[in-house]
Amino acid sequence: MTGNLIDRHNRHLNYLRISITDRCNLRCIYCMPDGRLPKLDHKQILTYEEILRIVKLGVKLGINKVRITGGEPLVRRGVYDFLKKLTEISGIQDVSLTTNGLLLGHNLEKLQAAGIKRVNISLDTLDRNKYRMISGYDHFNQVWQSIIDAWQKGFAPIKLNMVVLKGINDNELEKFAELSLRYPFHCRFIEYMPIGLSGIDPDQHILTPEIMERVSRLGKLEPVANDRNDGPARRYRLPGAIGEVGFISALSHHFCDSCNRLRLTASGKLRACLLSDQQIDLREPLRRECSDQELIELFHQCVLSKQAGHHLAENILIKSQMSKIGG
Length: 327
Ligand code: SAM
Ligand code: SF4
What we know:
The chain has 327 residues and is α/β, with parallel strands linked by helices. A twelve-stranded mixed β-sheet has the order 7-8-9-6-5-4-3-2-1-10-11-12. Helix content is 27%, strand content 16%. It is globular and about 55 Å long. The chain has a single domain, classed as TIM Barrel (Alpha-Beta Barrel), CATH 3.20.20. The protein contains ten helices and twelve strands. It starts with 14 loop residues before the first strand and ends with a helix. Bound molecules: S-adenosylmethionine and iron/sulfur cluster (SF4).
């Protein structure tokens, strides 16, 4: 059986984001507060073969875009062989990766050999001491070098993601946006989402209108047209910039109406929404060698459960941890 994944609100879901591990080599305060999160054990994580089976079925149902995330995807053993198998699946038009960049610099050639052409890299600050405070480790210099190396090796576009946190990195908004004047990077400001255990108070978020107002002190923001592979970022260019700035506003301007995403967690749960704890287990049926038809029905069940929009603004608590879902 083939077909399209169309939900009750007539959204076509063609994009699958896959978390391949809940482990990470950093401990960002907003994502993985140190020592407070039990780790999945090895057997609880989907094998690469299981993930590839799900993706191949997804392709039959209209999935043509995949993002690999985590935890930190580059810490999982065998990731480059897995990525190669993934990019070779016929019908997948775009495979990208979200990484903290720490292991990126030494593995760029392996990524290219695996068919990965573009990366999103998390970078919440340009200050080495603050980087250590936010991520728990003194690795700013390595990450920055990885970003430069990725650029010089031809990865494009390189999207840099900054989660904006009041009183922590909000004094660097202009500095971060200024990177787009010197480099062809897409510098993206992400509203903090209060989900799971976090070292951040929900009221430490800053909403996009304020972020945009501060960034536009550098010059008039000219809108950039979205392209086929764009996600929810609203894109702009500063005068004379070779790169772009972008704003991802899950709270202040939610993009649920045009959401085309499904998510697969590291432990094999299929989720219709990042910001809802509803999920469907695929691991159990996979491990009893269920039929493809059964998995396809679970895909459809998940799609039909997709709500029109999220309820974060109503202070509904999301228990799931970002590091398990993948962002
Ligand atoms: N380890 C990789 C990284 O940091 O890029 C991939 C996984 S991480 C969970 C994916 C993205 O989610 C990162 O850009 C991170 O900044 C973002 N993220 C994590 N927790 C968040 C939160 N509470 N609100 C908004 N973004 C968050
Ligand atoms: Fe790790 Fe990424 Fe979460 Fe930071 S945001 S703790 S790098 S998974």
